[in-house]
């Protein structure tokens, strides 16, 4: 029973991370109809920046604050000066651009930080263990779950309860109409893209101490985030949440029950969803 | 997409190209003959990719799953079936890639555009994972070495371990395949694919099952990529997980895009430029992927037609200057 609880928590921690990455991705896609292949590369940049900030200051909280800000600026610049430029050429070029960007970022990371994994070490209470209802569990994983819950709550509050959220949701539905109502939609696009990048960077920071920081980490999480989007449905925040939770548990229990097939499980899930409901659990029918 | 068939102006450069390729080993050093063989193998891979991207308008990030399947099947078959001929190994690879194409295509083609692109990447990751984990068959990270058998066909005996002989073998067989692809784009099926890209609604209305034609094309390009993968395994006499990785998809994407998706031979040019650049750049710097990536981004931003698009527009500009000058006064008179 205790083992069961531990694996549920493991699954939740990974789900939290996945949700942080995929929510930004799905938001940007829902709104701008741009599938950002560089999204996971932003996540990786977050992890690497965090590593460097930790080396320099030793303060994890500082990197948690700074990295999303840096990624926000990078995201805004990418949208304003690269993505917007190719928008007129159509979909294919936007995909190609973000794919090329991901490639360059990965190569750049290999150049600057080296093509090997770096260990991010923490100190303070985050490294400790906590005893709860008879199980001992690392604080850091609970911290990740807490972060995901906090960010998810904040996001859904902004998205569903504020004026900014209404504008964003309206722009997802019909950006031309919103533009005609006097709202600067290109600016909204830029900010949403930047927020997506910042979220991804934040996920990268908190992923650093949990997973290893290495140049392949982007491709690894990208595929999982894609599966989340396929299963949850494109552009749906609720779908991203549910799919993250399912995949988190699937990963955790897959390792426990069928270690050899654990990797295949999430693809199996994806294939089933594709056959049964191609638009995803929460997706609208195409 | 412009095609000038039957135009004598496009026949002569073609003959010169074929003649040049046939004569290449006579004046090129062995190192370059080897390099040219690599270009030929990748040219087939890029042509198959362009049938998907340029002709059908399907952006796939998973083409390496077929390429890698082809490479692995050749490697595994040659290791486990003694006395297997080169031709049979290649055919086995094509059969396996065809099967993979039908199965994955049936799932992938439920979606279009970004969604399709995303799914292809995810499926490629699945194939990659299988190749890495299935250690007993694929050798995992260690890869598999391939023994290139000699060719015995209809009384012809060729020693394929010889670099020049293998070059001719690849040139003639792959050349014929690429020629067949060119023919394919002119068949009813090839035309259908093009028209479905342009206006799917209308094609459906005209009674075409567009899903079937897309699946057929997807499978066909998968089989071609598998064939290219088989040649790749034979050429390098080695198959590793890099053959089935996302990087191998990136490679073909870069080749095709650099060469230009708008013309049939663009990807061949792309394969040539990419392979030569790779060869030169990797001598100079370890950072060559970064340079390739930068070239790619710059081309996406400023030269979306690729090199062949650039050549066409330069040629038109050179040929069209006189005509345009003459036309200007007419335009001025309109209002």
Note down, in words, how this protein is organized.
The complex is a heterodimer of chains A (about 290) and B (about 325). Chain A has helices at about 1-30, 40-55, 60-85, 90-115, 140-160, 165-175, 175-180, 185-205, 215-230, 235-255, 260-275, and strands at about 130, 135-140. By secondary structure, chain A is an all-alpha fold. Chain A has one domain (about 1-275): ABC transporter involved in vitamin B12 uptake, BtuC (Orthogonal Bundle), CATH 1.10.3470. In chain A, helix 2 packs parallel to helix 4 (about 90-115), helix 2 (about 40-55) crosses helix 8 (about 185-205) and helix 10 (about 235-255) crosses helix 11 (about 260-275). Chain B is mainly alpha-helical. Chain B contains 14 helices and four strands. In chain B, a hairpin with a 2-residue loop joins strand 2 (about 150-155) and strand 3. At the A-B interface, helix 3, helix 4, helix 9 and helix 11 of A face helix 5, helix 11 and helix 13 of B.
Kindly list the characteristics that best describe this protein.
heterodimer; A: mainly alpha; ABC transporter involved in vitamin B12 uptake, BtuC; two-stranded antiparallel sheet; B: mainly alpha; 14 helices; 4 strands; 76% helix
Please count the helical segments of chain A: 11
Largest sheet of chain A: 2 strands, antiparallel
C-alpha geometry of chain A: globular
- SSE pattern of chain B: HHHHHHEEEHHHHEHHHH
CATH fold label of chain B: ABC transporter involved in vitamin B12 uptake, BtuC
Q: What's the total helix number of chain B?
A: 14
What is the helical fraction of chain B, as a range of percent?
over 70%
For the record, give the distance between the C-alpha atoms at the N and C termini of chain B, rounded to a whole number: 33 Å
Q: For the record, what CATH class of chain B applies?
A: Mainly Alpha
Helix content, binned percent of chain A: over 70%
């Amino acid at each position: 029973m205790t083992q069961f609880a531990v694996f549920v928590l493991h699954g939740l921690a990974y789900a939290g991370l996945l949700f942080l990455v995929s929510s930004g991705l799905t938001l940007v896609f829902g709104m701008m109809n741009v599938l950002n292949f560089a999204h996971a590369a932003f996540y990786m940049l977050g992890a690497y920046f965090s590593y460097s900030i930790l080396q320099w200051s030793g303060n994890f909280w500082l990197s948690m604050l700074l990295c999303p800000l840096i990624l926000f600026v990078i995201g805004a610049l990418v949208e304003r000066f690269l993505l917007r430029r190719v928008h007129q050429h159509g979909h294919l070029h936007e995909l190609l651009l973000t794919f090329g960007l991901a490639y360059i970022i990965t190569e750049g990371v290999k150049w600057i930080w080296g093509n090997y994994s770096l260990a991010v070490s923490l100190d303070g209470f985050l490294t400790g263990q906590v005893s709860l209802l008879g199980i001992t569990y690392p604080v850091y994983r609970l911290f990740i779950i807490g972060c995901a819950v906090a960010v998810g709550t904040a996001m859904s509050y902004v998205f569903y309860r504020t004026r900014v959220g209404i504008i964003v949701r309206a722009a997802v539905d019909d950006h031309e109409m919103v533009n005609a109502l006097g709202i600067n939609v290109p600016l909204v696009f830029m900010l949403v893209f930047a927020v997506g990048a910042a979220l991804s960077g934040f996920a990268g920071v908190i992923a650093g101490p949990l997973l290893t920081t290495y140049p392949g980490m982007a491709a690894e999480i990208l595929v999982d985030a894609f599966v989340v989007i396929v299963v949850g449905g494109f552009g749906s925040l609720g779908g991203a949440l549910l799919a993250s939770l399912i995949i988190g548990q699937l990963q955790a229990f897959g390792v426990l029950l069928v270690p050899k097939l654990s990797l295949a499980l999430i693809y199996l899930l994806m294939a089933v969803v594709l056959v049964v409901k191609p638009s995803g659990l929460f997706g609208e029918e195409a | 997409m412009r095609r000038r068939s039957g135009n004598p102006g496009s026949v002569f450069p073609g003959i010169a190209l074929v003649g040049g390729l046939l004569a290449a080993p006579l004046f090129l050093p062995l190192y370059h003959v080897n390099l040219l063989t690599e270009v030929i193998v990748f040219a087939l891979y890029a042509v198959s990719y362009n049938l998907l991207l340029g002709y059908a308008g399907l952006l796939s990030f998973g083409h390496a799953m077929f390429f890698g399947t082809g490479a692995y099947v050749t490697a595994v078959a040659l290791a486990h079936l003694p006395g297997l001929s080169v031709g049979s190994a290649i055919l086995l690879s094509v059969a396996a890639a065809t099967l993979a194409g039908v199965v994955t295509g049936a799932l992938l083609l439920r979606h279009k555009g970004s969604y399709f692109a995303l799914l292809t990447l995810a499926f490629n990751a699945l194939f990659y994972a299988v190749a890495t984990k299935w250690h007993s068959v694929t050798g995992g990270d260690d890869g598999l070495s391939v023994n290139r058998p000699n060719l015995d066909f209809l009384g012809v005996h060729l020693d394929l371990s010889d670099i020049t002989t293998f070059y001719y073998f690849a040139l003639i067989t792959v050349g014929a395949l690429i020629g067949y692809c060119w023919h394919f784009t002119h068949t009813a099926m090839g035309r259908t694919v093009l028209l479905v890209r342009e206006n799917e609604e209308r094609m459906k209305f005209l009674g075409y099952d567009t899903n079937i034609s897309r699946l057929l094309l997807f499978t066909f390009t998968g089989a071609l990529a598998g064939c290219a993968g088989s040649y790749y395994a034979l050429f390098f006499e080695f198959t590793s997980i890099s053959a089935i990785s996302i990087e191998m998809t990136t490679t073909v994407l870069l080749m095709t895009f650099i060469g230009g998706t708008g013309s049939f031979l663009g990807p061949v040019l792309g394969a040539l430029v990419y392979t030569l650049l790779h060869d030169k750049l990797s001598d100079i710097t370890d950072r060559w992927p970064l340079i390739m990536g930068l070239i790619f981004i710059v081309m996406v931003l400023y030269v979306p037609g690729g090199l062949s698009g650039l050549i066409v527009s330069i040629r038109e500009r050179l040929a069209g200057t006189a005509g345009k000058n003459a036309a200007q006064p007419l335009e001025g008179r309109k209002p």
